[in-house]
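Worked problem 6 (solution included).
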Amino acid sequence: MNRRAKLLSSIAPDRQLGLEIGPLASPIIPKSERNRVLYVDHCGTPELIQKYKGQVPAGDIAEVDVIWSDGSLQDAVHGKTFDYVIASHVIEHVPDLIGWLREIGNVLAPGGNLALAIPDKRYTFDIARPLSTVGEVVAAHLAHQAVPSVKQVYDNYTMARAVDTTSVWNGLQTCDTVPYLHPRGIARTFVQRVVAGDYVDCHCWIFTPRSFLDVLRALTSEKYISFGLRHFFDSEEGENEFIVNLSAHMADDASFAIAGASGETVDNGLR
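Solution. The predicted structure is:
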């Protein structure tokens, strides 16, 4: 199966109503007369064009239908219910992972699908960062964390490495040999912005396939979220992400114990 087929393994865009969060210039589900999808982002299209000026051609940025910044997703969509939500490389950026999943659950019909593409830290610039723990996720939620923390921002900009995914898979790079991605000392500037009240985007959460499933299983069994695992697609050789499809309001913590979730099967010094 290709990447799109995995993400849509439980979704029928031509027959269902859905949301795609953060499509920017590469939506998984293109808008058409058949596909009833709305695009969600933290600001409108003009703001995104300005934000990514020089990085993404303005004409490539998808037209945003729903702005979700302050307030609930339910309010942003005016109380509508959806059959699916899809988000590619979004969940690792959200300051409150539990709150974000709950917001999505609130707009999904029972049995509705949440499809996620998530970076596998072993093959991305997060290679040197420690895995996120359940305790960190719960602490962020109980603190009503609305912006990335000083620690998350600092770690993001001091520990990021210039990883080549293919080289890591082939054993030509390890955690100890990959050079730093950002200049030394730059993190202090970003931390000062956080202290001043700015929102500094970064990877808040760091996962492997197994660690992500472990976190979801714990959050489900402790009733922080209400999702069951419908499909799981491990990181494939040469790729830097894994894909999960979750079922809303059908909590089953046992379903997250998937045989063959590699997590740590390829060592390469990356644990």
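Discussion: The radius of gyration is 18 Å.
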